[in-house]
Batch of 2 targets.
Target 1
Amino acid sequence: MPFLTSSKTKPQYDVIIVGSGAGGGTSAYVLAMAGVKVLLLEAGRRYDPSTETPMFQTPNQAPLRGTGTPDKPFGFHDATVDGGWTVPGEPYLTRHQKGSADQFHVAKDWDIWGSQQEWFWWRARMLGGRTNHWGRISLRMGPYDFKPRARDGLGLDWPLEYHDLEPYYDKVESLIGVWGSNEGLENTPNSVNGTLLPPPRPHVAEMLLKKHAATLGIPVIPSRMAILSQKLDGPRLAKKLHPGNPAAQKVLIKAMDARLACFWATDCGRGCAIKANYQSSTVNLPPALATGNLDVVTDAMVREVSVNDEGRATGVYYVDKKTKEDRRASARIVILAASGCESARILLNSKSARFPNGLANSSGKVGRYLMDTVGAGVSGQIPALENLGGFNDEGATMHVYTPWWLYQEQAAGKLDFPRGYHIENFARRSLPGSGSLDFLDTMNGGVYGKRLKADARRYFGSMINLSGRGEMIPNDQSYCEIDPNVKDAWGIPALRFRFKWSDHELKQAEHMRRTFIQVIETMGGKVLGQSKTDLRNPIAPGGSIIHEVGTTCMGADPKNTVLDPHCRAWDVRNLLVCDGGPFVSNADKNPTLTIMALAWRSCEHLLEDMRQGNV
Amino acid sequence: MSEESFPPRLSRREALRWVAVATASTAFFSGAAFSAGAAPKTAQPYGTDPLLNDTYDPGAFWPLTLDAAQRRTLVAVCDLIIPADEKSPAASHVGVPDFIDEWISAPYPSQQAHRPVVLEGLKWLDEESRRRFGKLFHELTVTQQSEIADLVCAVEPKDPSLRHMSRAFALLRSLTVGGYYTTPAGLKDLGFVGNVALPAFPEAPREVLQKLGLT
């Protein structure tokens, strides 16, 4: 049985991986398929999307019509298990946005827009982690994104370039299945090796958006989503991904055959019982388990990395949450993939006489350069979309998006902020939730009876939303560290966070709003609930876009970075971090695809090191 | 309209569960929970790991708490907000009052903040009905009910002293709309088509594209 209880693990593994999300799942897949003996430790419970996903449940079949609550902030049917903005028994601390510098309190807010909490930290405690509810947006970083400092003198450069990661983007896209198109736009890489699936047609409202955005010079192109618009070609892809490894090919062909194409209904955020989208729990872990090389222990909360007298990692200490017993697992190599922040927490808690400031922290940079994504949005009602009658325009989430399009204007100094954003949209006839028609009051001033029913029919499907997702530049005032007092339910010291947007981000958010208002008005629409004069407020609070990266930055210099260019700790050569932690910038491209590509590259390098006997 | 003639409010299974929980609570019968504005002590949150792949009716996780009189007023106002017409039924015929009862009985902060607003609103509707017509709100004709609703239905009421009640009415409307247009009857009325498995994403209707100038 590959799923084990903590008392049944083997005495020694080749590799221990902490965390089963995008980074941990990819690492487990790459290593197990190559024949390496892996133990995967997941802090949450075992989770099976094929039996647990509420695929066709409607809001009226859920408590409170599925509306979000502190228990399930993204709604009752959201896939997240034992998680959200707070996790029972697992506190973190942050500050009030206007509080004094050292006034930390245990974070408890869950309504991000009604809060002055400085930092929000979304976690999920389940097999597959946050990939289960993830938005599936899979954008490649472009050549500029790896060298931002060289371009504008701000932030940090990556110790690698686009072409270093490109082959791994190819591999990840081939494995998980990503729809999209190659448009040849600036710093928006084509997938030149034929790894994309065909995109679906845009929703009708998206077509209208595209038409009007074009008049403003704003491109609207097919989105890139980790959703199978058609079934994967297992035999071809298996040969391509695992040349000369017939055992791995066989496993992958079977795993790909178990995934069905999208049937164009139900919210991806619930997860997918037919495995049509990427979840680590449906895509990475099943084939990795099928090799027989992977053991998994769930409910295993890792406390620290153990090291020997030579300063090499020897395994991890963890708490079996079921029995509350302390456990130890041993391996030649340890990979932390517990998520940006959580991996930093493990390192900072791994203190010893040799490493008094925590493991891999001789640079003092563990926890530093915490980043999230800049987020701001505007909604609008579009009269052209009224009274369109009943037709199925639900589809699978967003079918088009806008990549950052103002590189030249920025380079020419025409913008007052340095980095770009892309635009995500809601412009489709999705299954309504309990708040979907709340904008009616804005349209008619508050009516009831037959007029209300007539207006509901008229306006349904006519509301769109545009959301910007932009690049944040790392700064010295945004970081996490261990709180000296607070521990979680397992006795593990908790993290506390400080976070600050700079003017770069605030001005970018303002540009987002101004642009979105312009787009909505160009479409003949009415902007909903947005002041035209106060564009600065609000920017989504730090952490709330759930793209937290950094805190274990990679680089070329051991003096000021935590990891080398292959995500190995400079100080502990058999310790890797394979999640969002290694990021030294947070391009507007959503981080998940890059987390996976980076993990794949790091694990291939590790395999080479293992073959050569270097670790 | 007698209470017995209402459409079935809860599935039998959920009704039994509700009665069992309610009976266990003396506070439920004392009436203290209603006047205090706080949710009853028996209300437990569904937690961070509820079974998702299932269906739930109001009352499945925490007891409903409106008394018969409050419920009659709620049913009447829900049906005034969304009455039956040739296309679709009235709000109470698809369980909207149960949903609102579930909402204000829930053990979560937003819902607990809404509870006194809804209860005050229901109380005001009956008081205003008595004052004008000497009857309770649910006993009035639709024309009489409308006379009262017209005072408070606008987001910005003509009489500023009624702003508080217009907020309560807006909340009742928001909950009624949210509850109604998430039911099969409400979805059909809106023209929502979907939530079914398709072999391919269908082409957009030609007449829609023509209307939008997209052909």
Target 2
Amino acid sequence: MTILDITTALCLTAGCFLGITGGFGIYRLPDFYTRLHASSVTDSACAFLILFGLMLQSGFTLATVKLCFIFFFLVLSSTTATHALAKTARSRGLEPLLGREDKR
Amino acid sequence: MNWVGHYNYWGAIFLMMSGFYVVISRGNLIKKLIGLNIFSTSVFLLYITMGKIKGATAPILTEASQLTASPQIYSNPLPHVLILTAIVVGVATTAVGLALTVRINERYGTIEEDEIRAKDDSL
Amino acid sequence: METTIDIVLLTFLCITAIAIIYIRKLFCGIMLLGIFSLLSACLFVTMDAVDVAFTEAAVGTGISTILLLGAMGQTNAHEKRPPYQPLIALLVVLVTGSVLVYGTMDLPVFGTPDAPIHLHVAPRYIQQSPIEVGPPNMVTSVLASYRGFDTLGETAVIFTAGIALVALLGSSQKKRPPCASPPQPATLHDHLILRIVGKMFIPLILLFALYVQFHGDYGPGGGFQAGVIFASGIILYSLIFGLNTAMRVVSPKALRLLGSLGVLLFGGVGLLCIALGGNFLDYNTLAARPVDGQHLGIFLIELGVGTTVFAIMVMMFYAFSLRGRNTS
């Protein structure tokens, strides 16, 4: 088990944990906009960690370059999709759930 | 009773039966088409499962696969070809079915099967 | 390890199928169908079927979802609660399922190399394909050369589906009466981020589609996947910039031409082989060495397939969108 393997294992585990966190957030959070934010955790951090772990395993080959391209495409397209969802919901009148004023 | 060796087939059959159930028990035309899609995808699963060999790799000759000491076995490419055709034909069928649904909706005003039948009986 | 991945993916697939049965909002059902297609694409990858996984991800998750959403947008989005409990349907399904499971008892165990399916024609394809046909991707050589007739039939089926769709839904805009002015679409200034990201991505998507088309000999890919990816690039353009702009870029007349040209190219290559002295779709006659002839023949028919698939998919999208606009 070289240091590369240990780093890969850590990255993959952290990525999976973040993915589960994102899924849990989608299930439990109360409002549409908060759930959208939870899913963006899965799209950005989880995807980055898992792809980075895979890049470490494949060394300096063409596969690493392809994984890099996949990551850039994923980050840009999923954040744009989140933006499109939020914008459409707002323009159709879905009001966000605002916090209550603190009663002192 | 070799259930360890057959779990893939049973999974595909369960999916086939759930798609079949959606087709025969729901009255909404678009829901029926969704069920038909599930049915055909699970049939693809069954075929591809039959083509897999344990320890084999994808049927593409790369330099890495040709330089191994022991002869490399490849999974059977024939089911892959048949299923490629089937996937594209399936989406063509779905598209024509959806076009028919849109026209039925324009004509009858609804896409629920029992309401369409009632309108037809009353004509 | 592979067994674990298989079982986990199959479990997710079963849960998704059960969710689709019970969900009554059609929009959620269609999205769950997209998830179902993507999960089955993952399962195809674990079964070493990379070409099939590519096609299922592109066609099932992409085009199928768009067409279903387009149809749902013009009909109602909720399913009615069934007025009676479908017990007979459940009984039929259980009986059929148990008969099928009884039938699978005789099937060979999953993964054995000496099952009857691997003993007939497949060893000849695997061993002779690099010698007789040439491309490293054996699926392409079987699809285009050994089973070329099936692929010709499939292209004809796609073309027929396109014709049927155009006949049902219409392909061009009805002439509006001159006094009624068309409603102004939302200005593109509102969609600034989508426009910019779209301008960055759409050329790359089209370039990737061309890469998949011509790289189908060496890796997973080929005409179908390339046509579908090219079509999704154009559909993305039409979703962001408006249907009118997209119809000026790729006009319905050009699509009709391209769709027919693809099938003609495929059939024409076959007839050319007859004219040069061989059988129908016998590429050995196309060049001096048989392997070069096979390479040229596969290149031409994959081009024909990709062109037809692209044209028909975009034509289908246009047909659904125009119908929704003309009747609304």
